[in-house]
Amino acid sequence: MTNKKWIGGALGLALCSTALASCSYSDKGSSQSNAEASGPAMNWTRETQKQLVEAISRAPANGLKPDLFLKGDLPKDDNERFAVLTNAALKYAQALAHGIADPKTLAKDYTIPRPGADVRAGLEQAIKAGNVGQWLNSLPPQTSEYQELSKAHLAYLAMANAKPFQPIPAGKPLKPGASDPRVPLVIAALSSIQYLPSNAAGGTSYGGPLATAVKRLQADIGIKADGIIGDTTRDALNLGPGGRARQLAIAMERLRWLDREPAATRIDVNTAAAFLDYYRGGAIVDHRKVIPGEPEKATPELQANVFQLVANPKWRVPDSIASEEISKKSAAWLSENQFAQENGRWVQESGPKNSLGLVKLDMDDKQQIYLHDTPFKEIFNMPERHRSHGCVRVEDAIGFAGMLAQQDGIFDKFQEAMAGEDETYVKLKTKIPVRLLYHTAFWDGSRVQFRPDVYGWDDDVGRVLGLVKGPPKPSLQKTEDVGP
User: Fold this and answer.
1) Of the residues 18, 119, 267, 448, which has the fewest C-beta atoms closer than 10 A?
2) Residue 388 DSSP one-character state
3) Interval 291-334: pLDDT, tens
4) Which residues of the chain does CATH 2.40.440.10 include?
5) Looking at the domain that runs over 273-314+350-437, which CATH code has it been given?
6) Distance in angstroms (rounded) separating the CA atoms of residues 120 and 33
7) What is the DSSP letter of 205?
């Protein structure tokens, strides 16, 4: 069911985009942000005051509300005004350089390295040099992705402000070929997010170019492109431009959490979109599908290193899966799938039926999350792939592991290990960092894309940014296999 409280998503932020004191907000910034803002006030010239006020007025370009940093008129007394300006500048700089939220307070397992900029020292230098505005502009990520998300955010804010959005009410799924009084609202919703021309017209018949536009939206958000408007598709339509602006604001916040100089050779997994990108020398050289954790067994946001490849791995079943799932299986099923007890715990033997497939990419993290193969390769052809127990299954994992082994100079050892039948460990000469990220809006190199918030984590970030609650988590089919 659609919740009217989240329809229009970022309209609260949209209405803040033109004036510093135009709307209220919920200021729940991290304790780190408040600590940065403490300390003696700095001396501001008229020029640096103007630069700061103008910079904060442009906060929506970073997905932020100006009111989070400055509200109302500035005090006339110099000392009081300098204190207010210093506090505002430090909070805004902190937000741009590190993010407003501390992700470690939102997720206990968050281990991705953060930026290390000293905003107080930077502000002091910027005031002395008279380039406060330029300095603030240098703090957020300077990547093409951040810039494209920023442009899209401002565009959706403008669309949200330009015309009131009318949501599509709940009802039976709307199938191509049907007639329904909600069709004009579907047309308007698609037009508002530029899937149809702004002057698109039509009656109550659902089909033709309208159904094609719906299928394109479904493909873009990673669900089955069948043209049937059920709850998940209707929720995506009911986001409207305001809801998309909200998603982009949250995505930019997550980008601000990240180290500005990540390892040039690394693996980035977007668990929201279910794909990975492999970087070498700072450029993407490989892109492939993955299967991350299902909503109830979400893959955490962490960074760890792939340090070894495991050929023909055994699966040592975690206690939670053993008690909740393996213990309920019949003796015949356990035997058929080669499960046995070893030293008091369930272990699945190596082989084509093994839940880890034929190769595992071991990572040095405390959560025991890793990348691996899978015998259930048909899932990679599904648009919605959140099916694992938390680890990340990789499309053509054998080919991917072989490529890493080739580049690391250990391909012969890896081939020899894969040719055998026993579990064999092949250490990498050079560890490869892996970042498990959760970005529901992202730049794919040619356009901005959106994905449903399958884990419901956007609301945690949106709350800190002072944004309204988002749509409910989509209802996904529960996985039937027991693999990690």
Assistant:
1) 18
2) B
3) 999 999 999 999 999 999 999 999 999 988 998 889 889 999 99
4) 273-314+350-437
5) 2.40.440.10
6) 11
7) B
